[in-house]
Structure formats: structure tokens, C-alpha cells
Write a structure and sequence with these properties.
176 residues; alpha/beta; 6-stranded mixed sheet; two-stranded antiparallel sheet; 6 helices; globular
Length: 176
């Protein structure tokens, strides 16, 4: 029986995992049965009534493994309610909200495969020591020095909960 929602994610430094867990918790608190699983661990979508997929953003793109997940499963994902979210630091920049349209465009490759019933755009964590490459650590360290970003956790838990609550309403209404 398809009575569960899958919340799946691809993360670089762990920030997106925390967002996925918060989405899963909110949906669970609203009475849904939810599995929160890293994309690389998902093998079957048949037992889920809906899928929520999210990725960290690097260089304006979903992580490669996240896009592969979408592309390989697009037929299955088109057959059930699908929502997507991304986590990026661009929205945490000074005047970051002015980049919301640009950040939304980074969801286009996902939209080209599956039409989301809802999209969430969230800020993440800037923890320079956890960045994967020396080049990234140097670039972000300089950006912090010049005031582009502040290091730390920029996730807006209230916005994440609000989005997940709205998504739950859409899923229950059947008006997708």
C-alpha cells in the first residue's frame, strides 16, 4: 500500500540533510508516514504515494547525483505528486532575496524532467572547514573577509516548516 511520503536529498556538507529531516518531521507531525533517505540509498519508489527531493547547490546547479536521481526516475516521479527543494548560500548573501529569481532558475533542469507541485528555496550553512575543495575554502574565506557572507547556519527553520505544511495541504487536497 502506498501510504508513505519519501523525502530524499543529496548533500555536500550536511546542510541539505538537516533541511530534509525538518521537512520530514513537519510532515510526520502533520500525520503523514515519512521516510527521509539520502538519494544514493533509494532503490525503489513504488511504495511511496509522493516524493520530495532536494539538493544542495554548487555553481548554480543541483549536485550531479541528485540530477541523476531525477533523470533516471523521471517516469516514476511523473506518476505521483513530486515536490523539490534546493539549499544554497546565495540567498544568505547581502541582498540575497534579490537573487531569489536566479536561484529559482536553478530548479529548471529538475522541471525539465518532472513538474513539481511545490518548490522550496532555502539557505544553508556556511562552514568553510567542511567545504570539499581547497579552492572552495579559499573562495569562501575571501568572500567572508569581504563581507559577502557570514559563516554559520543560515537555515530558516520557520520557512522550511511553513513550506512543508503548505505542501502537506496540497497533497491532502488532491488539487495538484
Amino acid at each position: 500500500m502506498k501510504n508513505k511520503i519519501l523525502v530524499t536529498y543529496s548533500t555536500c556538507t550536511g546542510s541539505t540533510k538537516g533541511v530534509a529531516e525538518a521537512i520530514g518531521k513537519t510532515l510526520s507531525d502533520l500525520g503523514e508516514s515519512v521516510d527521509v533517505i539520502q538519494m544514493s540509498m533509494v532503490t525503489d519508489l513504488s511504495s511511496y504515494k509522493a516524493v520530495v527531493a532536494g539538493s544542495a547547490i554548487q555553481a548554480g546547479k543541483w549536485l550531479p547525483e541528485a540530477m541523476s536521481f531525477i533523470e533516471l526516475r523521471k517516469k516514476e516521479l511523473r506518476e505521483k505528486p513530486f515536490a523539490s527543494f534546493l539549499v544554497c548560500m546565495t540567498l544568505a548573501m547581502k541582498k540575497g532575496e534579490s537573487y531569489r529569481g536566479t536561484v529559482s532558475n536553478w530548479m529548471q533542469p529538475v522541471r525539465d524532467n518532472v513538474t513539481p507541485v511545490s518548490e522550496g528555496l532555502f539557505t544553508g550553512i556556511l562552514d568553510i572547514k567542511r567545504l570539499p575543495t581547497l579552492n572552495d575554502r579559499i573562495k569562501f574565506r575571501l568572500s567572508v573577509l569581504f563581507g559577502v557572507w557570514k559563516e554559520g547556519d543560515h537555515r530558516n527553520w520557520a520557512a522550511i516548516k511553513e513550506w512543508a505544511t503548505d505542501l502537506n495541504i496540497k497533497l491532502k487536497s488532491g488539487k495538484l
